[in-house]
Design a protein that fits this description.
The chain has about 120 residues and is mainly β. The chain is about 0% helix and about 50% strand. A hairpin with a 4-residue loop joins strand 7 and strand 8. It is globular, with a radius of gyration of 13 Å.
C-alpha cells in the first residue's frame, strides 16, 4: 500500500490550495479516505473524509464551507480543495485509508497514512 500526498506549500490568508493523494497497492474504490492534519504542538485532527463510492462526506467544523474533499476512483486519487485558507489551517496534511467503505471520524477508523504534505500560511 502506498499513499503519496502533494500540493502543499506556502499560501496567503484568504488564498486557495489543492492537495492531492495518489493511492496505489490496494483497491482504492473500496475504501473510505480521509485527510488528517497535525499542527505543531497539537493533536492530529480529521479535517475531512469521504466514503468509497457514494460521495458522502464529513468535515470538521472549522473547515466547513471552506474545504471540499473529492475523489477520482478511476485515477486512484483523493483531493481536498482548500479555500479561504486561514492561519489555523497551517499543518502537515496526510491522507489516510479507511478500514472499509464508510468513513469514520476517529483515527482508529483508518489503517494507513501517507507521509504528508506541509501547508504553511503566511502573509
Amino acid at each position: 500500500e502506498r499513499l503519496v500526498e502533494s500540493g502543499g506549500g506556502l499560501v496567503q490568508p484568504g488564498g486557495s490550495l489543492r492537495l492531492s493523494c495518489a493511492a496505489s497497492g490496494f483497491n482504492f474504490n473500496l475504501y473510505a479516505m480521509g485527510w488528517f492534519r497535525r499542527a505543531p504542538g497539537k493533536a492530529s485532527e480529521l479535517a475531512a473524509a469521504i466514503n468509497s463510492d457514494d460521495d458522502r462526506t464529513y468535515y470538521t467544523d472549522s473547515v466547513k464551507g471552506r474545504f471540499t474533499i473529492a475523489r477520482d476512483n478511476a485515477l486512484n486519487t483523493l483531493y481536498v480543495e482548500m479555500n479561504n485558507v486561514m492561519p489555523v489551517d497551517a499543518a502537515l496534511y496526510s491522507c489516510a485509508k479507511g478500514q472499509g467503505p464508510l468513513f469514520g471520524v476517529a483515527p482508529h477508523g483508518y489503517g494507513y497514512w501517507g507521509q504528508g504534505t506541509q501547508v504553511t500560511v503566511t502573509s
